[in-house]
């Protein structure tokens, strides 16, 4: 049987969850002889990672004035490479993918990594993107929502439910022997791009409250983004420079996660949260915001604790609770690991995604 040829298109290659998801997906598909994968992506953090796991990689031009250029390039790739399926990630690649799919008469899968309306800022642009997407979604072959939360939001907004498949982001098993980063004491950690929607400022405020109550803790912030200077200034203003470390983007997050004694995920909006699952796999006690798709992953009091988004004092109380009650922290962490290993693995994500490829091409592949 001939291979199923897939063109993956993404418009960013930064430190976000959508980019990380595609890197994991390509790594899995690259090991499956049933698929030949090509990718169109901009230069950036994950570009080399993408290139290592695909048959070919082509440049996506992220500048706004290059929209038509990207659409024409995508169509030519589909035509010249004899692509069977187009799979897009992040706005506005859904529109570019649809143009290429329309002229080539190929199926299109649009991966919804988030509801763009949840993102702060750029109010006019995000609502324009959403309005366009809603009006053209009927022409998509399938939509992959990364959580039931995303599917529910889309259906409530008028999207056709029969178009939407929920496929949770899957995480590859961590390395067997991880050497933790060196540390001096109890470390509270978080991993996310540095953006106001990720809520790091509330975690900084909560950590400051703990320190003022006499808790000997450090806060490690892993990730990069536009809000770094703002967050660093906040740390200085609170007199916490010696207690907070900014590590920037890390291609290998496992040594950092291994060093964390407590993982905190303070997002104001979140479709799912890849680093949240990574922390679960390393059996870390977890505190996360009760927003978006997070409650589908964290069962409050069972495998972690949930707090209201933006509530620094509530976050501080929950953090102090797990710092003092190590027995409960261990119990939550143990259940978190068990849940992650049964629900959010890369194997499950790949199986469900490949089933969708098979359905749309009417081919049955071995997985």
List the helices and strands and how they pair.
Layout: E1 4-10, H1 17-29, E2 35-41, H2 47-52, E3 56-59, H3 67-81, E4 85-89, H4 93-104, E5 108-112, H5 123-136, E6 142-145, H6 148-156, E7 164-166, E8 186-191, H7 200-212, E9 217-222, H8 228-237, E10 244-248, H9 254-259, E11 262-265, H10 274-281, E12 286-289, E13 305-307, H11 312-324, H12 326-343, H13 346-361
Parallel strand pairs: 1-2, 1-4, 2-3, 4-5, 5-6, 6-7, 8-9, 8-11, 9-10, 11-12, 12-13
Helix pairs in contact: 1-13, 3-4, 7-11, 10-12
Tags for this entry?
13 strands, Rossmann fold, 367 residues, alpha/beta, six-stranded parallel β-sheet, seven-stranded parallel β-sheet, 13 helices
Mean pLDDT comes to 94
Count of extended strands: 13
Strand order of the largest sheet: 3-2-1-4-5-6-7
Number of domains: 2
CATH T-level topology of the largest domain: Rossmann fold
Q: What structural class should be given to the helix and strand makeup? A: alpha/beta
Distance between the termini: 14 Å
CATH hierarchy: architecture of the largest domain: 3-Layer(aba) Sandwich
Rg from alpha-carbon coordinates? 21 Å
Main sheet attributes: strand count, strand direction, barrel closure: 7 strands, parallel
Provide the CATH superfamily of the largest domain: Glycogen Phosphorylase B
Our count of helices gives: 13
Residues in helix, %: 40-55%
What is the CATH class designation of the largest domain?
A: Alpha Beta
Strand content: 15-25%
Sequence of secondary-structure elements = EHEHEHEHEHEHEEHEHEHEHEEHHH
Shape: globular
- Low-confidence stretches are none
